[in-house]
From TrEMBL, chain A:
Annotated GO MF terms: electron transfer activity; metal ion binding; oxidoreductase activity, acting on diphenols and related substances as donors, oxygen as acceptor
Record Pfam families: Cyt_bd_oxida_II (PF02322)
Listed GO CC annotations: cytochrome complex; plasma membrane
Family to which the UniProt record says this protein belongs: Belongs to the cytochrome ubiquinol oxidase subunit 2 family.
Entry keywords, A to Z: Cell membrane, Electron transport, Heme, Iron, Membrane, Metal-binding, Transmembrane, Transmembrane helix, Transport
InterPro entries recorded: Cyt-d_oxidase_su2
Protein name per UniProt: Cytochrome d ubiquinol oxidase subunit II
Swiss-Prot/TrEMBL GO biological process terms: aerobic electron transport chain
Organism listed in the record: Desulfatirhabdium butyrativorans
Name of encoding gene: cydB
PANTHER family: CYTOCHROME BD-I UBIQUINOL OXIDASE SUBUNIT 2, CYTOCHROME BD2 SUBUNIT II
Transmembrane region(s): 6-35, 81-99, 120-141, 161-180, 192-216, 228-247, 254-280, 300-322
N-terminal signal peptide: none
Bilayer disposition of the protein: Multi-pass membrane protein
Organism phylogeny: Bacteria, Pseudomonadati, Thermodesulfobacteriota, Desulfobacteria, Desulfobacterales
UniProtKB/TrEMBL annotation, chain B:
Transmembrane segments: 12-33, 53-70, 90-115, 127-150, 181-205, 217-235, 320-343, 355-373, 393-424
Native source organism of the sequence: Desulfatirhabdium butyrativorans
Any Pfam family: Cyt_bd_oxida_I
Location, primary (coarse class): membrane
Record protein name field: Cytochrome ubiquinol oxidase subunit I
Any one GO MF annotation of this record: oxidoreductase activity, acting on diphenols and related substances as donors, oxygen as acceptor
Listed GO CC annotations: cytochrome complex; plasma membrane
Cited PANTHER family: CYTOCHROME BD-I UBIQUINOL OXIDASE SUBUNIT 1 (PTHR30365:SF0), CYTOCHROME D UBIQUINOL OXIDASE (PTHR30365)
Cellular location(s): Cell inner membrane
Keyword terms of this UniProt record: Cell inner membrane, Cell membrane, Electron transport, Heme, Iron, Membrane, Metal-binding, Transmembrane, Transmembrane helix, Transport
GO BP term, example: aerobic electron transport chain
Length: 342, 438
């Protein structure tokens, strides 16, 4: 395997890890008004992701940084073409980020309501827009030979793009509900647990429609037909999705959450592997698309960055797992009593 | 207005706002870690209360620093895509290393610190704060290494119309970067020292929580004095290095139009870019700029007129910012040395305390001015000598940038106000009463 291919896969992997970690706290944020009926219940929800959400979001920074380092042309064209969508995501993330810290600092119910809304908006909008953006990448973006974008924000809001948005939002909401089911007790857990059953059929339906629509709207399946072994990735994603209610029923909260993580990673790789060698295909002419070969950094940079990533990412994963284990207990009232708690 | 100007304004607004929070994060994390360590060592509860009081300010400030930092990374792609494609090989790598080697550690450990009071032993909990402090400063090291490459590119070659790395070791040991890192970090540490001293002075003047704020003040005083002194000495070396590597910037900093031997320091100059001269000038001290910049009182310093008109930075802004920063730098040395002299009778020196209270915003100004010198003084280049800022911008519509610029100003303005409100509120509330914390 050449360096560009390795980096292509790492690029997909970093996005997948970002989706399956930050995804559940996006889900929890989106569910805030639906699962948390009282102030205390909402605090339970926020504090259930409290120790980890910030670290999760760095996967986005890393995915962005690695795109910049390994595929500078993709970074340049992708973020300038998707200007409006990405700016919306960034503003949403800003409001969400501060809402955690600001919300519980003041007792006033209206103050808390405002920051709760900021969290809901700041979680749901990125979830939706990341889906819209990636579905459009799967489909191809109208860029010309010089990488100029021939469209606007509304070009992205085509039916397939929107379907991708709904799929992502549902994935993250499900992931968040499974997290709450694992990390809380009392009414929050009960509502989350009930929601999982209600969400699941919808999620299956949307996933199936997305798989079928991808056949008509994208060229993702070309790679699969060439290398049928790749269908295993789709099977893995489907297996994850199917396992969720089964494990949930058996009260295996952690395994059910893990199954959802497998589904998210599988769904991401379904697209990423189908795209290969394109990172950013053009819908105008395939020749204008950016590939792992024509958009990559110099071999020396790819080598240096590979060493950096192989050195640091395992360490990051190790201490993040340590953090998750340290805070694995369900949230209790004592946790909310902390001065520093959200 | 064109896309270049709007994108520059947007980046300036976003970075300057970001850098209202970063310096306090960098310095206060160290002070809080030290306070917590003192608590672990001595078991003295006041140190725990100090950790909690200053720690809470740290957290509010930290949240604002983080969220405003994320937009910066992505703005290179959204607004400066031609720059990104040109330098991604080197600049992008440094940002990616920053994220994986430093920012991850900082963001993960801050969560552990906030929620881990009862999960970890006191020793381990203090160690976590040291990790946060270490990772914040390490983050700065990588980001500044990336910025230094824009100031003085090294270890690269131009191939297929972009910069490619040839000697990575040269990039990470860029002498310009080392000087920039030391200067920026010491500036940040000074800011946090003055922040703690300013708040403490307010309480000491009110005669409340005397022991608590007396200790806070004295801790910060030593920290602030050390780095104020360091910053002036090191700044001199940094300036001399800039003189050799960015002569146009130096000429703009000193408002020097004519190439001359025994180049003077002009205490006050009002430069006029069009007329190519200083319309007001007084306090000329001959030879000082030659001496400071080139280490020889008779050395010839290149004036602005010897650079093509289109390669001169905005002189007025660069020179005012530079002189303001230097003036403040000397003030910080002076005032902290006075503080050291008075350290055992601070409570009897209300005038000094009042001065320190009102000095709180000054390092904020100095830090911003320093960045103006660095960034405005580098113009018209985005990468010094290699790429012009006007060639770096994304092919996007004016309306897009205008909309986001307005959104930045609005959202950041609101966030700034809310953040300030929360910090002030927390300060007014004061530390927890003794024995209430456990």
């Amino acid at each position: 395997m050449d360096l560009q291919t390795i980096w292509f896969l790492l690029w997909g992997l970093l996005w997948a890890v970002f989706f399956l970690t930050d995804g559940f706290d996006f889900g929890v944020g989106t569910l805030l008004p639906f699962v948390g009926k009282t102030d205390e219940e909402r605090r339970i929800m926020l504090n259930s992701v409290g120790p980890v959400w910030d670290g999760n979001e760095v996967w986005l920074i890393t995915a962005g940084g690695v795109t910049f380092a390994a595929f500078p042309k993709v970074y340049a064209v992708m973020f300038s073409s998707l200007y409006s969508a990405l700016m919306l995501i960034l503003f949403a993330l800003i409001l969400r980020g501060v809402s955690f810290e600001f919300r519980s600092k003041v007792e006033n119910p209206r103050w808390r309501q405002v920051w709760d809304m900021a969290n809901v908006f700041g979680s749901a909008l990125p979830a939706l827009l990341f889906g819209v953006a990636f579905a459009n990448i799967f489909r191809g973006i109208p860029i010309d030979a010089s990488g100029m974008y021939q469209g606007n924000l509304f070009t992205l809001l085509n039916p397939y793009g929107l379907l991708g948005g709904v799929l992502f939002l549902l994935m993250f909401v499900m992931h968040g509900a499974l997290w709450l089911n694992m990390k809380t007790t009392g009414p929050v857990k009960e509502r989350a647990a009930a929601l999982i059953y209600k969400l699941w059929p919808v999620q299956v339906a949307v996933a199936v429609i997305f798989l079928v629509a991808s056949w008509f709207s994208t060229r993702l399946y070309d790679n699969y037909l060439k290398h049928p072994a790749m269908f295993l990735v789709i099977l893995l994603a489907v297996a994850g999705l199917l396992a969720i209610p089964f494990l949930h029923k058996k009260a295996k909260a952690f395994s059910a959450w893990l199954a959802s993580a497998v589904f998210i990673a599988g769904a991401t790789f379904f697209g990423v592997l189908g795209l290969f060698p394109y990172l950013f295909p053009s819908s105008i002419d395939p020749a204008f698309g950016l590939t792992a070969q024509n958009a990559s950094s110099s071999p020396l940079t790819l080598k240096i960055m590979l060493i950096v990533v192989l050195l640091f990412i395992p360490v990051v994963i190790a201490y993040q797992i340590w953090t998750y284990r340290l805070f694995r207990h369900p949230i209790t009232e004592e946790d909310l009593g902390y001065e520093e708690a959200y | 207005m064109d896309v270049v100007l709007l994108s520059r304004l947007q980046f300036a607004a976003a970075t300057m706002f970001h850098f209202l929070f970063v310096p306090l994060t960098l310095g206060l994390s160290i002070l809080v870690a030290w306070m917590e360590t003192q608590w672990v060592r001595t078991g003295d509860e006041t140190y725990l209360r100090m950790t909690k009081f200053w720690g809470k300010i740290f957290l509010i400030n930290f949240a604002l620093g983080v969220v405003t930092g994320i937009t910066l990374e992505f703005q290179f792609g959204t607004n400066w895509s031609r720059y990104s494609a040109y330098v991604g090989d080197i600049f992008g790598s440094l940002l990616a290393i920053e994220a994986s080697a430093a920012f991850f550690l900082e963001s993960t450990m801050i969560g552990v610190w906030i929620f881990g009071w009862k999960k970890l032993s006191a020793k381990a909990h203090a160690a976590v704060m040291w990790l946060v402090a270490f990772a914040s400063s390490l983050s700065a090291v990588w980001i500044l290494t990336a910025n230094a490459w824009m100031q003085h590119p090294v270890g690269y070659t131009i191939r297929d119309g972009r910069a490619e790395v040839t000697r990575f070791l040269d990039v990470v040991t860029n002498p310009f970067a080392i000087l920039e890192i030391l200067h920026t970090l010491s500036g940040a540490y000074i800011l946090s020292a003055f922040f703690v001293m300013g708040v403490s002075a307010w309480y000491l003047l009110k005669q409340q929580h005397i022991d608590f704020f007396h200790r806070s003040f004295r801790t910060a005083l030593i920290f602030g004095a050390v780095f104020s002194l360091f910053s002036v000495v090191q700044g001199d070396i940094h300036g001399a290095d800039v003189a050799r590597k960015q002569p146009a910037k130096l000429a703009a900093m000193e408002a020097l139009w004519e190439t001359q031997k025994r180049a003077p320091l002009i205490l006050f100059a009002w430069p006029d870019q069009e007329k190519e001269k200083n319309v007001i000038e007084f306090g000329k001290i001959p030879g000082v700029v030659s001496l400071l910049a080139l280490r020889d009182i008779n050395a010839e310093v290149k004036g602005l007129k010897d650079f093509p008109k289109e390669e001169r930075p905005p002189v007025l802004l660069t020179s005012f910012a530079f002189k303001g920063m230097v003036g403040l730098g000397f003030y910080f040395v002076l005032i902290t040395l006075i503080g050291l002299y008075l350290r055992n009778r601070l409570l009897d020196s209300p005038r000094y305390l009042k001065i320190m209270m009102f000095s709180l915003p000054l390092p904020y100004i100095a830090n911003q001015l320093g960045w103006i010198v660095t960034e405005v003084g580098r113009q018209p280049w985005i990468v010094y000598g290699l790429m012009k800022t006007s060639d770096a911008v994304s092919p996007i519509a004016v309306s897009q940038v205008a909309t986001t610029l307005a959104a930045f100003v609005l959202v950041y303005g609101l966030l700034g106000m809310v953040g300030a409100f929360l910090v002030v509120r927390h300060i007014r509330k004061g530390p927890e009463p003794e024995t209430a914390t456990a």
